[in-house]
Amino acid sequence: MSRCFAMVAGEASGDILGAGLVKALKVQYPDAKFVGIGGPKMIAEGFESLYPMERLSVMGLFEVLGRLGELLNIRKKLFNTIKDMKPDVFIGIDAPDFNLSLEKKLKEAGIKSVHYVSPSVWAWREKRVFKIKKSVDLVLCLFPFEVEFYKKYNVPAICVGHTLADAIDLQPDVAKAKTELSIGDDHPVVAILPGSRQGEVSRLGELFLQTAELVQANIPKVEFLIPAANEERREQLQEILSQHENVNVTLFNGKSREVMTAADVVLMASGTAALEGMLLKKPLVVSYKFSAISAFFLFRMLTQKFVSLPNLLAGKELIPEILQDDATPDNLSKALLKFLQDENAAKHLHDDFLSLHKSLRLNADEAAAKAISNII
Q1: DSSP sequence for 178-244
Q2: Residues 316-363: pLDDT tens digits?
Q3: DSSP element (H, E) containing 334
Q4: What mean pLDDT do residues 198-211 have?
Q5: Are the C-beta atoms of 264 and 187 separated by less than 8 Å?
Q6: Architecture category of domain 174-359 in CATH
Q7: Could you give the residue range(s) of every CATH 3.40.50.2000 domain in the chain?
Q8: Which of 129, 207, 219, 269 is the most buried (most CB within 10 A)?
């Protein structure tokens, strides 16, 4: 019997997880159909995306409001399509604000639902766990501490690890990355990752370039590398760079992993990239700026001390988190210069990051596929 898997991924990180999951499920079910919303990596694996994934990529409590009508319309149409399709299981990949309500309605319609990537209920809005319990048959967690949280509420959950931990070598090849990017060994290298969304780059791009100017004033030979997530972000970044022609910057199309691997230190927007930077064993400086009104509410709802995954996984501050009003060129440049000028500050992170990497290396794609196979 041919199987049908419905999935929804809302952004680039979900697209990576979804592509790995589709590939692993095809090993067990070669004739299976995969349909819903996904990105280019999922589509390359044979996934049929009914709507562009980019339409779901909205960040911030109030930024969503401007697109609420469109998002609700997509979700309504998608529910009807999936309900009529009667897939063996629906898998919502991250994007909890969109997926959990969809999962709940599908479960009520008799379709098994799995949520892949736990929402940050352990960090803020903890009461969402009750909605999750009603909405899904299983939560696939990326991190071990999340399973312990769900046990308290009797929500079925397992840890499958993270596909990035499987994909990235325990000891990344820095020399190879520098060769691929034509980067020399005779000067310090700083990677700058201001995010993949338009709003992130608009809030962080100028800030990060001002930071680069201060770092370059202290270390004239430093080189900055910026990977553009897509063509739209490249155009946006080029416009910002035109105001900072004195900064020694090389802009790349994609290649974020190679850029981080080649760097001595990374300045980045908080998000999945921080996990990738940790797995690459790179000193990180994490920053973020929400719109003022989103920040007002978000920071009052946080129940965790940290926001970046390396610190959350370690349960202590391994890397600096410089957020909102504290995110100034002066503060960010000082944090970067500490890593660039103090070898011990950079070296002490390596062993901690290596230990965390090993704890997440669980063959995530296969583990997730096995768990879903058990569900159906």
Answers
A1: HHHHT--SSS-EEEEE--SSHHHHHHHHHHHHHHHHHHHHH-TT-EEEEEESSHHHHHHHHHHHTT-
A2: 999 999 998 899 999 999 999 999 998 888 888 998 999 999 999 999
A3: helix 329-341
A4: 94
A5: no
A6: 3-Layer(aba) Sandwich (3.40)
A7: 4-161+361-375, 174-359
A8: 269
Architecture of the CATH domain 4-161+361-375: 3-Layer(aba) Sandwich (3.40)
C-alpha span between 131 and 329 (Å, rounded): 41
Nearest to 340 by CA among 244, 216, 250: 216
CA distances from 220 to 22, 264, 265, 328 (A): 47, 15, 16, 21
Tell me: the pLDDT tens digits for 11-54? Answer: 888 999 999 999 999 999 999 999 999 999 999 999 999 999 98
SS3 assignment, position 91: strand
**Where are the strands (E) in 122-175, listed by range?**
138-141, 157-159
Task: Give the CA distances from residue 318 to residues 274, 283, 311, 348, in Å, rounded to whole numbers and listed in that order.
Answer: 12, 9, 6, 9
Q: What is the Cα 34 distance to its own chain's centre? A: 22
- How confident is the model at residue 161, as a pLDDT? 96
